[in-house]
Amino acid sequence: MAFTPENLARAREVVARYPRPKSAILPLAHLAQDQDGWLTRDAMAEIAQLTGVTAADVLGTCSFYTMFKRDPVGRLVVSVCTNATCLVTGGPEVLEHLEHRYADDPEVTVEEVECIAACGGAPAMQVNYEFHEKLTPDTAAEVVEAYRRGELEARTVSGSRR
Ligand code: FES
């Protein structure tokens, strides 16, 4: 089974809130990712069963949203924007620095993302969907280290509060 017994009960409660069960695909995907840290094949199959669709339907829905991770990720997901405003204010340098620094660190996953709507604070990044702005390569790494030391409280990799 994909969900723990406790989360399976929660999942059934969530499905019951919707007139059509398939409307619960996204909240159940968040629940599964919060449980496992990523969206496993078993989780997608169970979500499909609970919502009356196929596993391919669940994959099709969840693969549209980059927040759903279909491979294991670290406890900290660092999303660095390199879109237009961040591109010209140092985003690529921040990304390169963090990718290099955390290349062999299983706790930190660094990813390049499109605009995260923080252009006024470019270059910007998110750590588990918490915004950090006006970064340099060094200050970005300091932010990540603050999460690692527990000085900043990390949300789950789905962005939920614990
Ligand atoms: S371009 Fe980076 S936040 Fe908009």
Write a brief structural summary.
With 162 residues, the chain is α+β, with helices and mostly antiparallel strands. It contains seven helices and four strands. The protein folds into two domains: 5-62, NADH-quinone oxidoreductase subunit E (Arc Repressor Mutant, subunit A, Orthogonal Bundle); 76-149, Glutaredoxin (3-Layer(aba) Sandwich), CATH 3.40.30.
Question: Any overview of this molecule?
Answer:
By secondary structure, the protein is α+β, with helices and mostly antiparallel strands. The chain has two domains: 5-62, Orthogonal Bundle (Arc Repressor Mutant, subunit A); 76-149, 3-Layer(aba) Sandwich (Glutaredoxin). 44% of the residues lie in helices and 11% in strands. It has helices spanning 5-16, 25-36, 41-51, 55-62, 84-87, 91-101, 137-149; strands spanning 76-81, 108-113, 125-127, 130-132. Strands 2-1-3-4 form a four-stranded mixed sheet, covered by helices on one side. A hairpin with a 2-residue loop joins strand 3 and strand 4. The protein starts with a helix and ends in a 13-residue tail after the last helix. FE2/S2 (inorganic) cluster is lined by residues 81, 83-86, 115-119, 122, 124.
